[in-house]
């Protein structure tokens, strides 16, 4: 954070230096810097602020900043994270502010005399976190999509190359087979031509020889021997020629066979190398896929580490905020007197009580463990005794079997006599059994009849209960449907509008045309029912205008039992039928201090309590104080930053402490004493003490327990006269 308030010589060069060197700023206060112009503000429009970015920019009372500077600021990349922009008493117009409203999605536009600009909406930090999470998620999804697209394109490219290689291989194989077929065709055709030519030559030679021999025999019979010898010579020459040609053919066939074997071995080697190449290609492809998977996992780990670093950074920020808040609470706790000592004593007592309870629980746990161990030992001893008992029983059983075997003989002897005795009693036993079966059957019949009657009665009761339950569920379902329809009808009946003249909302009935400043009964019933401000458990049924709190009937009777509180005016929130009571418009100012109306005023806005509706009672620095003499209430408002609170701000408390210190110094100088000597035997004045850290369950009177929080909406209620006991009293009915 950097505050340069009322620096008149701060201008464009200073803004450029801040935009260049101070990139971690989150709040920049340039209120009252008269040297700022539109060109100076333009230096912030192109800055890439480091996370979390510039959140709050205060340019109040800068006359040189106008509509052009606002347009440059919102259109640049440096204003994406700004949630608070104060342009009070600048040269910017309402039209320019309204046109720039879309660039501040997490802020709302205010055009009041005390604030002109954009004010952050409730829970704006959560909105920014959600937006950052969405932006990071979209970036991650886009990165993953790009990576998947890259992997897909690379895989497609490899697949296309593989398909092209396969196609080229098929083309080469087809051409090689064609060339081999054509070579074989040429070979067999040349062979056929040679054989045909040889046969033709042989036939022509044979015919010529026979013709010449016949002519000689016809011409010269005496030369027949020479002709026979010539024929024998021709035949020998022919046979030798055929033999030579056949040998030459066999040699050529052997050479061709060797060439075929060589080509086959070369083809087999090529096919084997292709198979090995494909195996190696698949192996390298699998290795590439594993590398890509390892890279993907590494990217996931890097993203996880980045998220962890961001979470640790946010945790450090929260821890620093928490440590600053603890330091502030410790500085405030120094000034708390007797009441805080009592609270600390009770707190120590509760801590000691919790420690005592923890020790008792540990002791009970140890006792339970000891008893469990003892019980395990007892069980083990009992098991050993059981085994010993079983062994003794087995020995006894063996002895008993032996005795039984010896006794069977004696039993066989006595059985005969006993059977004769039983035969004598059999007739009497049969008669007695017949009478006993008749009586037992009569008893069983009566029991079954009673059970059947009871079962029929229970079934009738269950049937009635089931029908009643189904009817109740159906009625509840129909009632809920009707309630939703009635609620929607009531909600659509009234319309909330805003009056620009009085700067407050009003409600318009679209059916009857009625106009109300307060919420009508139809809209009051749609609001959540408030809890009791005393017990904070039961729903409130009454409200007190003096205590400014809601009470249930029991707590109201307890708190307002006697004394001055018995005279406090109160009124009921609901009538006898449980519907919200509508008390009309009433007084729409600080004079109406009913809690329900204060809640409506807070919902309408805190600007109804300040200027121009009311004049401030006192101005303390930048803060204005508004008092209500009747109810002893004070409201503080900062027109520059737009902050409002019922508690004393830190600046007001420091001003009061400084005033008390000056008064004490003046009094000590009048008595001729030093300031330290004046306070040696006296208690120092306690001014501006806040009880924001005390527990609301501690009984006390006349102290406001409303803690100040910038993220909490102000309701205007204070918990006064809180009591921790709950007494059993009768319910107050009206």
Commentary on this structure:
There is one protein chain. By secondary structure, this protein is an alpha+beta fold. Helices cover 60% and strands 8% of the residues. It is built from twelve helices and 16 strands. The protein has a six-stranded mixed beta sheet with strand order 1-2-3-4-6-5. A hairpin with a 4-residue loop joins strand 5 (107-111) and strand 6. Helix 5 (124-219) runs antiparallel to helix 6. It is flat. The protein starts with a strand and ends in a 56-residue tail after the last helix. Residues 673-734 have low confidence and may be disordered.
Write out key terms for the chains shown.
734 residues, alpha+beta, six-stranded mixed beta sheet, four-stranded antiparallel beta sheet, 12 helices, 16 strands, 8% strand
């Amino acid at each position: 954070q950097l505050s340069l308030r009322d620096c008149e010589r701060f201008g464009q060069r200073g803004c450029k230096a801040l935009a260049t060197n101070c990139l971690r700023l989150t709040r920049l206060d340039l209120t009252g810097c008269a040297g700022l112009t539109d060109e100076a503000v333009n230096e912030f429009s192109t800055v890439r602020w480091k996370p979390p970015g510039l959140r709050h920019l205060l340019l109040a009372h800068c006359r040189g900043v106008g509509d052009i500077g606002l347009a440059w600021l919102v259109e640049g990349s440096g204003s994406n994270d700004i949630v608070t922009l104060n342009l009070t008493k600048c040269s910017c117009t309402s039209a320019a502010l309204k046109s720039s409203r879309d660039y501040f999605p997490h802020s709302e536009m205010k055009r009041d005399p005390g604030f002109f600009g954009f004010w952050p909406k409730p829970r704006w930090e959560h909105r920014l976190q959600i937006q950052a999470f969405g932006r990071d998620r979209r970036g991650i999804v886009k990165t993953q999509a790009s990576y998947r697209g890259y992997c897909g394109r690379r895989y497609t490219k490899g697949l296309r190359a593989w398909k092209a290689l396969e196609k080229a291989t098929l083309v080469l194989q087809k051409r090689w087979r064609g060339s081999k077929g054509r070579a074989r065709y040429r070979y067999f055709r040349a062979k056929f031509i040679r054989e045909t030519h040889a046969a033709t030559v042989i036939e022509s030679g044979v015919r010529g020889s026979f013709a010449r021999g016949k002519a000689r025999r016809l011409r010269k019979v005496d030369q027949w021997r020479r002709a026979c010898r010539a024929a024998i010579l021709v035949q020998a020459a022919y046979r030798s020629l055929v033999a030579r040609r056949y040998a030459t053919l066999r040699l050529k066939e052997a050479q061709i066979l060797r060439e075929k074997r060589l080509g086959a071995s070369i083809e087999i080697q090529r096919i084997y190398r292709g198979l090995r190449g494909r195996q190696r290609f698949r192996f390298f492809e699998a290795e590439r896929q594993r590398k890509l998977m390892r890279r993907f996992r590494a990217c996931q780990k890097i993203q996880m580490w980045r998220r962890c670093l961001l979470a640790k950074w946010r945790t450090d920020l929260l821890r620093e905020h928490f440590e600053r808040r603890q330091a502030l609470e410790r500085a405030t706790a120094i000034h708390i007197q007797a009441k805080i000592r009592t609270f600390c004593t009770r707190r120590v007592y509760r801590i000691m009580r919790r420690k005592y309870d923890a020790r008792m629980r540990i002791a009970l746990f140890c006792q339970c463990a000891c008893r469990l161990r003892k019980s395990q030992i007892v069980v083990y001893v009992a098991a050993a005794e059981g085994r010993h008992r079983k062994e003794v029983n087995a020995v006894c059983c063996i002895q008993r079997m032996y005795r039984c075997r010896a006794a069977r003989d004696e039993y066989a002897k006595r059985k005969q006599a006993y059977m004769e005795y039983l035969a004598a009693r059999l007739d009497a036993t049969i008669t007695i059994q017949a009478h006993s079966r008749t009586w037992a059957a009569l008893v069983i019949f009566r029991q079954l009849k009673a059970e059947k009657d009871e079962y029929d009665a229970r079934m009738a009761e269950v049937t009635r209960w089931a029908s009643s339950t189904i009817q109740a569920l159906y009625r509840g379902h129909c009632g809920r449907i009707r309630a939703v329809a009635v609620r929607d009808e009531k909600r659509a009946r009234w319309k909330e509008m805003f009056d620009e003249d009085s700067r407050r909302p009003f409600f318009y009935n679209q059916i009857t045309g009625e106009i109300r400043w307060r919420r009508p009964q139809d809209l009051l019933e749609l609001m959540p029912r408030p809890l009791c401000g005393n017990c904070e458990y039961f729903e409130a049924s009454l409200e007190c205008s003096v205590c400014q709190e809601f009470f249930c009937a029991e707590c109201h009777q307890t708190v307002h039992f006697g004394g001055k509180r018995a005279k406090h005016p109160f009124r009921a929130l609901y009538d006898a039928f449980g519907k919200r009571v509508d008390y009309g418009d009433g007084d729409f100012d600080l004079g109406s201090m009913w809690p329900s109306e204060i809640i409506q005023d807070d919902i309408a806005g805190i600007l109804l309590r300040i200027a121009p509706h009311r004049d401030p009672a006192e101005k303390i620095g930048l803060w204005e104080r508004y008092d209500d003499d009747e109810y002893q209430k004070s409201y503080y408002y900062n027109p520059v930053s737009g902050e409002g609170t019922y508690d004393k701000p830190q600046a007001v408390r420091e001003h009061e402490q400084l005033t008390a210190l000056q008064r004490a110094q003046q009094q000590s100088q009048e008595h001729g004493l030093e300031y330290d000597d004046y306070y040696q035997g006296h208690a120092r004045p306690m001014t501006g003490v806040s009880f924001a850290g005390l527990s609301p369950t501690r009984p006390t009177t006349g102290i406001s327990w409303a803690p100040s929080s910038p993220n909490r909406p102000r309701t205007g209620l204070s918990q006064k006269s809180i009591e921790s006991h709950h007494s059993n009293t009768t319910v107050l009915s009206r």
